[in-house]
Design a protein that fits this description.
Distance between the termini: 29 Å
Low-confidence stretches: 5-21, 31-37
CATH superfamily of one domain: Tetratricopeptide repeat domain
Oligomer: single chain
Number of helices: 12
Structural class: mainly alpha
Shape: elongated
CATH topology of one domain: Serine Threonine Protein Phosphatase 5, Tetratricopeptide repeat
Order of helices and strands: EEHHHHHHHHHHHH
Length: 225
């Protein structure tokens, strides 16, 4: 299992506590449940409460009131993808690109949606558009790696994951994906290192633990050949 992750930043002030930069998962863990008047903040909290339709409506209202903010569109994409409404997500992110055609986040999300639709070649191109605008964009490197991996192009996926971990070495999923590419290329010692790093960052990362055990077993088999 490979995964992409992306934060949903926003500003929500609840009971005097500024939750700037928090995403719905952060809000859920903090137990914040007051619904703010701000449309975007309202969407973040509603999404944290798994009220996806209401969250989507709030994000849509935010983007209609201030259509120049790409974040309002990308948060709609998050909700639509959670609800498996991929074609709608594609229409939304294309609206964002109409507004901000040189926004790397919008292009990266375009790649994500295309990948979820099974158009891996299109996704690779969209992620590249994002990277042409910002070649330090770790999430786009990871996403492009996922698209290459879906096509079985593991060497190219590995190169992308290596850059994702270079530009952001604190994301457990990036390290897991890096390890998976190493594993698929029979580079088991390097895979062990990557999976171990993922577990350092997230000790509860079950896929990394499973793959780490498998990679160590393969190393042992190689030693006995």
């Amino acid at each position: 299992m490979l995964r992409d992750t992306h934060p949903r930043a926003g500003r929500v002030v609840l009971d005097g506590a500024d939750t700037a930069g928090r995403n719905p998962d952060d809000i859920r863990r903090a137990g914040l449940c007051y619904i703010p008047e701000d449309r975007h903040g309202r969407g973040l909290v509603l999404q944290a409460q798994d009220k996806r339709e209401e969250a989507l409506a709030s994000y849509q209202r935010a983007s209609s009131e201030d259509p120049a903010v790409v974040l309002y569109y990308t948060n709609q994409v998050d909700v639509l993808l959670e609800m498996q409404r991929r074609e709608e997500a594609l229409a939304v992110i294309e609206q964002a690109l109409d507004v901000q055609p040189d926004n790397p986040s919008a292009w990266a999300r375009h790649g994500q949606v295309l990948r979820r639709l099974g158009d891996n070649e299109g996704a690779i191109e969209s992620y590249q558009r994002a990277l042409d605008l910002d070649n330090t964009y770790a999430w786009a490197w990871n996403g492009q790696g996922l698209a290459y991996a879906a096509e079985g192009r593991w060497s190219e996926a590995l190169a992308c994951y290596e850059l994702a971990t270079y530009y952001n070495d604190t994301d457990a999923w990036f390290w897991y994906n890096f390890g998976e590419a190493r594993f698929m290329l029979s580079e088991y010692a390097e895979a062990v290192h990557a999976f171990a790093r993922a577990l350092e960052l997230d000790p509860n990362h079950e896929p990394a633990q499973t793959r780490l055990t498998e990679a160590r077993a393969r190393l042992d088999d190689d030693d006995h050949d």
